[in-house]
Amino acid sequence: MPHDHHDDNPHSLLPSEPALRVKALETILAEKGLVDPAALDAIIDLYAHEIGPQIGASLVAKAWVDDGFRAGLLADANTVITQLGHGGRQGEHVVVVENSPDTHNMVVCTLCSCYPWPLLGIPPGWYKSDAYHARAVREPRAVLAEFGVTLADGMDEAALAALVTRDSMIGTGLPRAPGAST
Amino acid sequence: MPFAAPWHAAAFAMTVHLHERGLFTWPDWAAALGRALAADEKAGRLDGSDDYYRAWIAALQELLAANGVAGAPEIETVMKEWKAAYLATPHGEPVRLAAR
């Protein structure tokens, strides 16, 4: 019979050490008038529901259909995203780079996991792990492979031929993406 | 929800709020977080979740101490008060700090 701690511990479940520390900080900062609990809830709600990768996606889509916008974004991303109201905290020094048939960009911050919050929201845990920091630099292709991404420049003719479907040659389909399951 | 635990979200929101209120500049914050992460990375591997936000809290505490807002002893005292409140509150009832 598994031990059920609720039976012999009738008090509330004790939060973890860091969770207690955060509660203590909230208490102290609220008592000193530095933090307004309602404002904290509003910030969490904003980053949980409104600021996320859909904002970055809308800029990418606009760059795809509007060459002038794309050129401006590549030349001076900060000016463009500030004009659109997506600048601000953690979005002060954004550089936009473009993938092409012979260039695939992969972003990593090995210092403090900086990330363009106003465009992509809160980063996923793996982006902040030191495994990603170290391996993205040392063996980027191995990391990409774990994400299911294989770049075509590393593929021989047989592997490339495997991407070409009958329907893609008729024109009623598209070739398979490299790394996609066949 | 982009936060793995409620305390991650709370630590994040406090930092953003204090920056909005002008307690520290964003470059000061980024430098403090970078220092805390570098110290943790020397001590062992970072999983990017709990231990990232542990470093986050360490950076926040550093800035609070540097600005004279709260030092480690005061924070430890209030943590003990919260712990006592949890242990004294029956399961299922709201946990409140005793009058301070």
Structure overview:
The complex is a heterodimer of chains A (182) and B (100). Chain A is mainly α and 182 residues long. Chain A has three domains: 17-50; 52-148, Nitrile Hydratase, Chain A, CATH 3.90.330.10; 150-182, no CATH class. Helix content of chain A is 53%, strand content 0%. Chain A has twelve helices and no strands. The relative contact order of chain A is 0.07. With 100 residues, chain B is mostly helical. Chain B has two domains: 6-69, no CATH class; 71-100, no CATH class. Helices cover 67% and strands 0% of the residues of chain B. Chain B contains four helices and no strands. Chain B is globular, with a radius of gyration of 15 Å. Classes of the chains: A mainly alpha (182), B mainly alpha (100). Chains A and B meet through helix 2, helix 3, helix 8 and helix 9 of A and helix 1, helix 2, helix 3 and helix 4 of B.
Which structural class should the secondary elements of chain A be placed in?
mainly alpha
Name the beta content range of chain A: under 5%
Secondary-structure element string of chain A: HHHHHHHHHHHH
Helix content of chain A: 40-55%
Main sheet attributes: strand count, strand direction, barrel closure of chain A: none
Strand content of chain B: under 5%
The biggest beta sheet of chain B is recorded as:
none
* Low-confidence runs of at least 5 consecutive residues of chain A: 1-7
Order of helices and strands of chain B: HHHH
What average pLDDT do the residues of chain B reach?
89
Architecture per CATH nomenclature, i.e. the level-2 architecture of the largest domain in chain A:
Alpha-Beta Complex
How far apart are the first and last residues' alpha carbons of chain B, in Å? 34 Å
Number of separate helices of chain A: 12
The outline of chain A comes out as extended
Largest interface, per-chain counts?
A: A-B, 52 and 60 residues
Query: How many whole angstroms does the radius of gyration of chain A measure?
Result: 23 Å
CATH level-1 class of the largest domain in chain A: Alpha Beta
Number of domains of chain A: 3
CATH topology of the largest domain in chain A: Nitrile Hydratase, Chain A
